[in-house]
Amino acid sequence: MKSSLLKSALVAVVGLALCAPVALQAQTNAVNPIATSPVVNPQASTSSTKAKKTPYKGTVKSIDASSLVVTTAKGDLTLAIAPTTKVLVNKKAAAVTDITVGETVTGSYTKDDTGALTAASIHTKTK
After folding, report:
1. Mind listing the pLDDT tens digit for each residue in 23-62?
2. 74 to each of 53, 59, 81, 122, how far by Cα in Å?
3. Is pLDDT larger for residue 45 or for residue 69?
């Protein structure tokens, strides 16, 4: 008796699990009653992905806790320094205060929707 009740309960649970996706597919959305699932714009999801990083190389013109100005072959580049900016001196983690005016630096930066540039990384080698 217990075995048949257990089998019946198992069949009922499996049956509900199999029917649930079908029931969800039958729902329509209010904007388009014919649609069975929301339309997803693949380009809209790219805004949540990582921002494109642009490399740079130049000489430090000025630096403080919040910004870095690098003189590059194309002119001066002003970059904001964020808490997420990775600073490396001789390939080891360092602080912004370890970078000095006149040093050659490389790295990458990102550009937001407003056009503001933020340093993603700052790399230098000491002599």
Report:
1. 444 444 555 555 444 444 444 444 445 679 999 999 999 9
2. 17, 12, 20, 18
3. 69
**DSSP assigned state of 28:** -
Determine contact, residues 67/106, Cβ cutoff 8 Å: no
Distance CA 71, CA 63 (A): 12
Domains and their CATH numbers in the chain: 2-40 (no CATH), 54-124 (2.40.50.320)
Q: Is the pTM of this model over 0.70?
A: no
Phi, psi angles (nearest 5°) of residue 43: -75, -30
β partners of residue 81: 119
Partners of 88 in beta bridges:
93, 123
